[in-house]
Design brief:
285 residues, alpha/beta, TIM Barrel, two-stranded parallel ribbon, 20% strand
Length: 285
């Protein structure tokens, strides 16, 4: 997903299939940027930025592109942020895309400037859609960020097409990979976000991460197993590796350089583990 500033080309490398110890470069999506301003100069980047695919400076990650295993059938989705610019959602739906997660917030003070329009228009076009939050564990508590997210797009509507909110937790785009936190402190932060979000919305929380970051920064924590569906970022040809502590995945982000009619440039592509009935079930969970 994408931070509020575009990442530099350095270190954008993805874990290829079977290379579990390598650094996974996450998808281009939505880590924040200044809510009312234009992107600033890029900070030193980490290994994953959901929704950043649109950034021209971003090179294809190792194994990038639309991979056969992810793009051949199944229930397809995208994740987007302001980096994708204006999106024609009716064309996206006609292209076969069934669901979308849209960046809403980052940290405890940033709101994506295109969230409201994308959220409304994607729903009108007939997609299942939800919101996501880019975590900044070094800026404020998990509880504070969960409340901010819930009040600024991460809520739920009982219409059978609103997906659970997403916690996008990945490498720090401008500093220490684990935000200066020990594994135990990171687990505590995530647990606080999860429990507060559930209390605020009454909904399950989807967790978006990649195996390399999760294993390094949480110690392969199993505290969310069975409590939060996993959206795993792993760009390869056969299927995703799982972070420690999880036994299955619900959504797989398989590339950061997909093409979809209605979206200018590259975009992250995702695949549901299941059929449309499971997507509807997720929307009602």
């Amino acid at each position: 997903m994408s931070p509020r500033r575009a990442p530099s080309p350095r270190r954008r490398r993805l874990v290829s299939a079977g290379v579990l110890g390598a650094c996974l470069t996450l998808a281009a999506g939505a880590t924040g940027y200044a809510s009312q301003g234009s992107p600033a100069d890029p900070p030193q980047d980490g290994p994953g930025y959901m929704g950043i695919s649109q950034d021209a400076a971003r090179p294809a990650a190792g194994g990038g592109g639309v991979h056969a295993a992810g793009s051949s059938g199944g229930v397809q989705g995208v994740d987007v942020s302001h980096w994708q610019g204006s999106i024609t959602w009716s064309k996206v739906r006609k292209a076969g895309i069934r669901f979308a997660w849209i960046k809403a917030t980052e940290g405890s003070d940033y709101r994506d400037s295109r969230f409201a329009g994308n959220y409304k228009k994607s729903h009108k076009a007939g997609l299942y859609r939800g919101a996501y939050h880019f975590a900044r564990p070094n800026s404020s508590s998990g509880a504070q960020q969960a409340k901010f997210f819930a009040k600024n797009g991460g809520h739920w509507s009982k219409n059978s097409r609103t997906l659970p909110g997403v916690l996008d937790i990945e490498a720090n785009p401008g500093g220490a990979t684990c935000y200066g936190k020990s594994a135990s402190a990171m687990r505590k932060w995530i647990k606080s976000f999860h429990s507060t979000y559930r209390k605020q919305t009454g909904r399950a929380l989807v967790v978006y991460t990649n195996p390399a970051w999760w294993n390094q920064c949480t110690g392969g924590w199993s505290g969310l197993k069975g409590k939060a569906p996993l959206w795993v970022a792993h760009w390869n040809n056969s299927g995703p590796s799982l972070p420690g502590g999880f036994s299955t995945w619900r959504v797989w982000q398989y590339t950061d350089s997909g093409k979809v009619n209605g979206i200018s440039g590259n975009t992250d592509r995702n695949k549901l583990n299941g059929k449309v009935a499971q997507l509807k079930k997720l929307a009602n969970s």
